[in-house]
Amino acid sequence: MTDSGPLPGWYADPSGAHEWRWWSGSTWTTHTSSRPGYIPEATRVAQLAAEVRMARFAPWAALLLAASMLAGIAFDWSIAGQFSRDLHWFRLAIKQSESTHGSFPPLPTQPFSTLAWSYLLWPVELGSEVTLLVWQYRSAKVAVSLGYPARVSPGWGVAFWFIPVLQLWLPYLAVRDLLAKGHPMRRLIGYWWCSVIVALLLESALPLLLAFAHGVGVALIAPEVVALVVLGILLRAIVIGVAAAHSAALSANATGEAPGRTCSEVWP
Known about the structure:
Blueprint: E1 9-12, E2 20-23, E3 28-33, H1 41-55, H2 58-100, H3 112-145, H4 154-159, H5 170-176, H6 185-212, H7 214-253, H8 263-266
């Protein structure tokens, strides 16, 4: 008695266009079936390719973002003096207006060096942020196609970065859900998010503290530097690790074989 091959039934579609295809016992038929939300293999491969292309630049963007924020500390230091001069001018203006009936002293001018810092830092920081947001969106699309449970959609995961209050927590969930539950790098994402919160809080407070509570501001420079260095290193590792995890997961899922035979044996 000869082996006639697998019995008729539904098997994984070797073409990847659908989830299941009917095997007649001797050949594949045109009858197909897919669960709601099923993403064809070709689409998943294209999404992964887009993520991998972005992952070539995103690690460098992570380091550039941290470096530009570090350079921003020097910018904060320079504008602290400007804040102090403006405050002094404001006090003089009040006193002089009272004695001269509305006459104000000349407004202090901002040093060109301070303006130059802002001109140099702004495009670097903005370009790095855009690159990382595009990477996050493309990575989230791949995570969804791999069936990872996600609290937010890829688009909202990016949008939450710009919504006050929500940006303190929901972007973290979006990045964490780029990896499957139980993945060891999820803990690393938690550490990275702690560095993000610390860096953002100190970045917001540092200019005012340097201007009006100089000693406190100087004391906070060291923790700000540490937070930014940790942020850059961990974010670079996360970008590389997520891309590698997605590539491995897609390769593991791309079997597409009917029981007992390879695709080349049963697909004409």
